[in-house]
Amino acid sequence: MASDHDPGESDQEAPGLPETHRDVRHNWWAWIVIVLAVGWIVVGVRILPSGAESIASQDDSATLAILRLQSQMAIGMSGLQPGQTKELTDQLRPIALAGDETTAALAIVHRFIGGEGDGLRDARNLIQKRSSINGSDDKFLTATEQALTNGVTDLERTDWLDRLGWFGNLFPNPDGSIPDDSKIRARGLLTAIGGSFLVIGAFGAGIIGLILLVLFFVMRSERKMGTAFDPKFRPARVFLESFALYLGLMAASDVLGILLTSRFPEGSLVPFIVSTALFVAAFVLGLTWPVFRGFRWKRVRHALGIHRGKGIAREIGAGFLGYLAVIPVAGIGVAITYLLIMYGEMAPVLEAAGGNEGDPSAEIQTASTPSHPIVGWMSEGGILIKISLLLLAAVIAPLFEEIMFRGALQRAFRSRWRFFVSALAGGFIFAVIHPQGWVAVPALTMMGVGFAMLREWRDSLIAPMTAHAINNGCLILLLIAAFS
Q1: Which secondary structure element, helix H or strand E, spans residue 338, and what is its range?
Q2: How many CB atoms within 10 Å of residue 62?
């Protein structure tokens, strides 16, 4: 295959020397592939009936898992601050009313916290509200109300556990008692206390990160600290092709996985194996594409940031410190996401004020809490599933995503645009292909911007990979603790 290099280029491959390589000239097709792949991952996959069903199932599972965490906190708060418990459970109503199972789950929590009096009354009101919405499963909701009123046997409880998971433990026995009542409340108390410490710790880490960020910009303005990334280093534009091929095959793996799932019996490993193989192939092709285009691997590796930087240990340390600085940057996006969620919660109130108070569907939250399918898998899976997901989120995802996004895509964008535009564009693509939904896009975009800052600072990908691994690893470990 013909090379895109200048025939008279130097054999010296050190990245610090003046650039003498030419880059690819025309890669308009890469933009088309990226746009189509992003569009398919975000919207197109829902066109396939089996794809829409799969996404809906994953969303329901993740929402139920998120509702479990919030319910555990509500149960814990009922022992600490009973006055705030109703306020907390009322905040969950718009989310719960979006589905039959989530409505049943919150109704069970009402009955558990409030008992046979206020709790059962609130549970019935919630179920009646959901029953009045078109498309609700009245038979299932009626069965839920009867179980809350009359209690369940051990055999019936097993069926409820299969349908609703952890929430099945909260049903009363026929005599009104609840098995493991004190244990469930103690667990809820630990969740509430742990959640409070987590918020305080995150806030403290964010303050430290903000201080580090300010110090960095001050020292940079005084020329006491610089950035290692060289936007003039070549090759660069060829990596847009790499990223396009990577993302295109990722989209193809989604399509193939969905099609195979509909054609093989439930529990078959064939769809998973084929999708995983295509996912790995997408990464390998994206990584090696510049070599096929005629560029030397050593130079490609440096352009991507796959090098030791100032030493592996030092770069890992920079990743730890850098993650603290990423927190306040991501906090900007989190604040926007929070406002979107608040708008979703206020929308029913505004609808009612506009004269739709008679429409029960107006109470359904329009901007749901961002959730990832992995939350549902963590809630339902055993220890092997949890360990596998930890490796996927804290090892494989940081490795693959940082090489492709902060390595290939940022290198291509920085050859055309300044840092902020490049980081924001790359962060946006990074955000929209994640399955948390549009409401999480601001938070994930700014997280991507934070990782891009680390790439700009260090050039080596070790620091952003470390920060990415810390972020994902901590979240997964927290989920393991919460769902154990």
Answers
A1: helix 312-351
A2: 25
pTM: 0.85
**d(Cα 82, Cα 269) in Å, to the nearest integer?**
48
Q: Are 412 and 237 in contact (CB under 8 A)?
A: yes
Handedness of CA 302, 305, 310, 313 (dihedral sign): negative
Q: Which residues contact 359 (CB under 8 A, 6 or more apart)?
A: 351
pLDDT grade, residue 84 (50/70/90)? low
> Does 290 sit behind a cis peptide bond, omega within 30 degrees of 0 on the bond before it?
no
Q: For 298-332, what is each residue's pLDDT tens digit?
A: 999 999 999 999 999 999 999 999 999 999 999 99
Torsion of CA 242, 246, 251, 256, to 10 degrees: 130
> Which 3 state secondary structure label does DSSP give 245?
helix
Every domain of the chain and the residues it spans: 44-48+195-483, 74-190
SS3 232: coil
- d(C-alpha 367, C-alpha 370), whole Å: 9
Average pLDDT over residues 29-50: 82
Compute the half-sphere exposure of residue 448: CA atoms within 13 Å on the CB side of its CA: 31
Residue 443: Cβ-neighbour burial (10 angstroms; 0-12, 13-18, 19+): buried
**Type of residue numbered 236:** A
Amino acid 31: pLDDT: 95
- What the block records as the tokens of 450 is 């934070």
Tokens of 239: 């990596």
Q: Which of 439, 348, 380 is nearest to 96 (CA)?
A: 348
DSSP letters, 261-272, are HHHS-TT-SHHH
Query: What stretches of 81-237 show up as alpha helix (H) in DSSP?
Result: 82-96, 100-114, 120-131, 138-150, 154-164, 181-221
Cα–chain center distance at 181: 33
Q: Which of 140, 71, 46, 70 is nearest to 101 (CA)?
A: 140
pLDDT exceeds 60 at position 8: no
How does pLDDT run across 339-378, given as a tens digit for each residue? 887 776 555 544 544 555 555 554 555 445 666 778 888 8
Residue 366 tokens, joined:
């329009």
Cα-based angle 276, 277, 281 (whole degrees, multiple of 5): 115
What single letter denotes the amino acid at residue 110? H
